[in-house]
Amino acid sequence: MHDIKWIRDNPDAFDRALKRRGLDAGAGKLIALDERRRGLIVELEQAQAQRNTASKAIGAAKKSNEEDVANKLMAEVAELKVAIPAMEAKEKQASEALQKALAEIPNLPADEVPDGTSADDNVEHHHFGAKRNYAFTAKQHFDLGEALGQMDFETAAKLSGARFVVLKSGLARMERGLGQFMLDVHTQEHGYTEVAPPLLVRDEVMYGTAQLPKFADDQFKTTTDYWLIPTAEVPLTNLVRESIVDEAELPMRFTACTPCFRAEAGAAGKDTRGMIRQHQFTKVELVSITTPEQSKDEHERMLASAEEVLRRLGLHYRVVTLCAGDMGFAAEKTYDIEVWLPGQGAYREISSCSRCGDFQARRMNARYRPKGGSPRFVHTLNGSGVAVGRALIAVMETYQQDNGAIAVPDVLQSYMGGMKVIER
Description:
Blueprint: H1 4-9, H2 11-20, H3 27-63, H4 67-103, E1 123-128, H5 141-148, E2 151-152, H6 153-160, E3 166-167, H7 169-188, E4 193-194, E5 200-201, H8 203-208, E6 220-221, E7 227-228, H9 233-237, E8 243-246, E9 252-261, E10 280-290, H10 295-312, E11 317-321, E12 333-341, E13 346-355, H11 359-364, E14 366-369, E15 376-377, E16 379-387, H12 388-398, E17 406-407, H13 410-413, E18 421-422
Parallel strand pairs: 4-9, 8-14
Antiparallel strand pairs: 1-11, 2-3, 5-7, 6-7, 9-10, 10-16, 11-12, 12-13, 13-16, 14-15, 17-18
Helix pairs in contact: 3-4, 7-12
């Protein structure tokens, strides 16, 4: 959510930032909506003041036996009592129109974000490791998993339809182990507090992190009007909604390993085979709540935390800075970590670490109180730490053997009862 006062004071800067996002100028429309809202507020306040003044004058007129004046004043008050509710309704309508317009505009890109319109314009920041050479043709995860008899898409389709999977035996245990391994690293070494959040949330919680209203079609909603979380970012970030925390409590760092649910409404024809793009998947999420001054450093710290997981798993990856036209709706700057999948022969996103400024905080009314100062909006950050299903895919393809078995990375063996190889 944007600050309309800032937009009024900086209309040209606002429109330039929107243009970097590939959007048309919007300051003029927003300022016009705000002018109407402010005009109606003035009219309403004047009417309320007039009513109060007239009401007080009635008693004085009656005390002075000025019945004609008193009757005239009472008629005036009666008219205002009828007019004011209508004026309040108009002001509410104007305020809602402004809020709706503001809610549909994405966050503005930070100055250091590269220009561009698509993923082709993203800029590589750095990389870790190197592509492995195999003495055989590397297979994709679904071929490996099905040959092992431990990854079953056919049965999942009978149960739930497309974009679901049934994992069994060693692969099911590895997925569980990956999530536990990530949580242990983030809580024991990176200072994150583990949270077990609700998986069903209300409208206002989805609105707070900007999944609503724009992306409603990408979500799953229950018949009782709860939303299934698309990421633990939603409940974790909203832990501070409608509150004022003390500055000494910041930064707050939360992590959770949860199922996530996405309708993938715009993904028709994309990644139809395998586990890359599913309706249900597991992800470890990282969320930080900071002061504005801490925000940039926290972004780099969060990225390093997510990277550490991949480094210990021995996975080759690269980090890219997303261009202005490729960032998510709520982000002002985003790093994507893309892991190398030997079977696909391609880099695929496994983590996205975003700095959101006060964009989400305004929607949630989440603030902090500086020492000796007035409340200010917090800054929020979120990142995958990392996507568990995609980490499973990367481990399978990276550690595949010529006989189709999967070697278990050293750091995972203790989570798998000492198992060193997943075989049929």
